[in-house]
Structure formats: structure tokens, C-alpha cells
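Deliverable D4.2, example record:
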Amino acid sequence: MKFEDGFRIDGKFEGKITAGGDLVIGKFGTATGTVQVTGGILSSAGELSIGKAGAGTLRVTGGGAIISARNVTVQKLAGSHGTITAEITGDSLSLISATDNVTINGGTFEVVPTAVPAHGALTWDVLSAGLALVGSFTTLALPPDEPGATGRTWSTVYTPYTFSVGLTIPGDANYHGLVNFADLLALARHYNATGVQWTEGDFTHDGLVNFADLLALARHYNQSAPTPPPRAPPTLHPPPPSTLTPHSP
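Output generated by the structure prediction step:
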């Protein structure tokens, strides 16, 4: 479907929608709109608003869709509420991309771990801006940490152009799957700093880098994220006995 002007959408989506104007989820003050994107193309030449004046939720499932707009805004007007839900079904996630700007005026980011890979350190880009990403979510609804000595923990990271979610063991600041000197150096550079995040050494999610984060790193130093079990060697079978009759001279 192609629309020359704006379009308000609600429901589950898998197909193709392109709009010459804006795409809005949760347009009015009393409106509650939810869109689940599982595949196809959802694009706007204008703005994609997730909660413009009402409550809007964009749920992205898996990695089979293209979602793009000139600008992406979460919670555009005062009194609105915007939610982005990332349903993880593997090692890829459909990116919500803006050719210009992404603006996050609060709202909620949620992860639904439907089928998370069991091994390794993982990151999924959620939002991407061509010019600038500004703001942050007010609420992060992340899954609980995995159990065990090498259980992984969820985290989020903002950069000037992207917002992403990651999963790795505590202390692995760069998501390389191993806690080593590079991670310790990242923590040391931000020790006693505030307003920091995972890649800067905040492994306890409190916005600070302090002794608690150093302790989390020390407990996992030289440890790796869970790796797949080694493959069993192939079973070798002896060749069958020969059925040829020896030739007599």
C-alpha cells in the first residue's frame, strides 16, 4: 500500500506500506495503537511517530523487515507515551532507521527474549540515525540475568547515532565475549564518573562506575561468554569385508 499523505496504523503488519507523509502509532490523546512488524517494508518520507499524542507501541519481531523514515520520534507531544519492543528470535533484529534524526523523549524500551542464542556475546541495533540520535528512554524493561557463574546480563548502549541492546557476561565492556585488560582500561578511564553506561564500565546499571563495577569485572576476569559445546568427532566404521574371490594363477 502506498499513501501520498500521512497514515495512522494499528495491528500486526507484514507486507509493504510506504507513506509520502508521516506514519503515526498512537495519534490522539485517547488513542492506543500497537503495531507488530514481523516482515516486509514499513517506510515514511516524513516522520515515524511512536506515540504522538496518545500511546503507541512498535513491536519489532526478528530480523525480516525494513523500517525506515526521514525522522523517528518516540513520545512526540507532552502526555503521550511511546514503547519500542524488541522481540529477539535469533542473532538479528530489524533496524528502525532514520535518514535524519532519532528523538527519544522518554518512553519505554522492552526486550522479549523469545529465542535468544545460547552462546557468545551479542548485540542488536534497535535505532539508527543518519544525522543524530538524541534523548533516552525513561524505562528499560530487560530480561533477568542468566544464572550461573558465566551467566550473561542484558544492557543497553547509546551512541550519537545508534541505540542498541546487548547480552554478555559482566565485565565485558566491548561485547567481545572475553573479559580482559581492554575492559579494565575502559572501566579505569571512567572510574568515579556518573552518567555512564555499559561500554564505559557501568556493569551494575546504576549510572556510576565505582568499586561495585570493578568487583563485577574482577570476578569474571579472563572468563569468556558461554561457547557452543565441541562437536562430537565423526564415527568411523571399518570398511566392509571384501567379496572378491582371490584369483588363482
